[in-house]
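User: These chains co-purify. Model them together.
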Amino acid sequence: MKIHIPTPLRSYTGGLETVSIPGGTVDAVFQQLTVKYPDLKQHLFTPEGKLRSFVNVYLNDDDIRYLESKQETAVKDTDELTIIPSIAGGMNL
Amino acid sequence: MLRIEYSDYEAIRAHGEETYPNECCGVLLGNHTAGDGAAATNHVRQIVRAGNTRTDSAHNRYNIAPQELVKIQRQARGLGFDIVGFYHSHPDHPAQWSKTDFAEAHWLGCSYVITSVEQGKAATTNSFLLIGTGEDDKKFEDEAIQIDIHARVAAISGA
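Assistant: Joint model of the two components:
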């Protein structure tokens, strides 16, 4: 399946915007992604292996956190995974 | 350096005036040119307005829904652009990044543009480049803004 890499993380995928990784579940795809591009791992996951709170992952148009099977959700080769860090802020007085 | 066309620069500032006294936010699409320090350029080719989901505290916080970001990133890909930055406004507050802006900034290498809007009128617009290799060493660096004025605009304005 295709995985779309956001601008700040492309330096860890050799500049690639899209990488293709085979896999049966979201979790398996991430396993293979971080084996192929090991420097990505610390930017996506905490040392405990949890997806970092500011990293959003969408399977097609769905946030994987809200999928019934979450990271164990089965994927097809035609599916697309998008990694998108959050955007927020404000003067917050 | 942030490079942006005059019309886009003005559109960002106008967005801040429209949403006053709330914060506006949006995404900058374009191309990144690598380089050391000031040689690195985020060249804006298109701006995309985004909705502020922080309706509970829109006067001093902003958040772009991730599903909207996914769509914007898809749009950028279709145009041959990347996400090179973001913008938001600070109503009646300086155009400087806040602790919240810094804590919530995760797009290394991207430009964060802030416009102060004073009593409904856009005042100062500054850009800050998020540099570093990760959450542990990230920092904002003041970034120069180059505003491109096309000949037609320059002729109209007498510039």
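The CA atoms of residues 55 and 85 of chain A lie 4 Å apart.
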